[in-house]
Each structure stands twice: as C-alpha cells, then as structure tokens.
Amino acid sequence: MGIELALYDSRPPGHRKRPVTELRLSLGHGDALAAALLARCTTEAQRAAVRDLADVLAKCAGTPGSWLWFIGD
C-alpha cells in the first residue's frame, strides 16, 4: 500500500462543502515521533520519506487555512 500527500492552501476544488470538524489534535509529540520514525528507517529512501513528510507537515502548519490530504491505495 502506498500513501501520497497533497497539500492545499484551502479545500481542494470540487470537495464537498461541509463544516470543518476537528477530529483529533495531538500536540507536543512531534520531535519524539520524528525521532522514533527515523530510528525505524533501514534505508535512505525511508529516511527521505520521513524528511519529506516532516517538510509537508511543517508547510501545512505554517499555512493558515491549508488542508492536507492523505491518499492511500
């Protein structure tokens, strides 16, 4: 299974309009999570994926109103 990420500065075009609901918020674990993920990486490709995820999440956190979509197959 693969997971792709799409970062939008607002809701994607054509997305159903409905009120935004925060389902869960976890704060204060970012550094520990990143370290734990990197520690489990056995290849450079895995480490690059974790760094890419961190970059996308940072951009999302720094862009008010942005929307991050996890796309799995």
Please supply descriptive tags for the structure shown above.
single chain; 2 helices; globular; 2 strands; alpha+beta; about 70 residues; about 15% strand
Task: Tell me what the structure shows.
The protein has 73 residues and is an alpha+beta fold. The protein has one domain. It is built from two helices and two strands. It has helices spanning 30-40, 44-61; strands spanning 3-8, 67-72. Strands 1-2 form a two-stranded antiparallel sheet. The longest helix has 18 residues, at 44-61. The relative contact order is 0.33.
List the helices and strands and how they pair.
Blueprint: E1 3-8, H1 30-40, H2 44-61, E2 67-72
Antiparallel strand pairs: 1-2
In short:
The chain is α+β, with helices and mostly antiparallel strands and 73 residues long. The chain contains 2 helices and 2 strands; from the N terminus they run E-H-H-E. It is 40% helix and 16% strand.
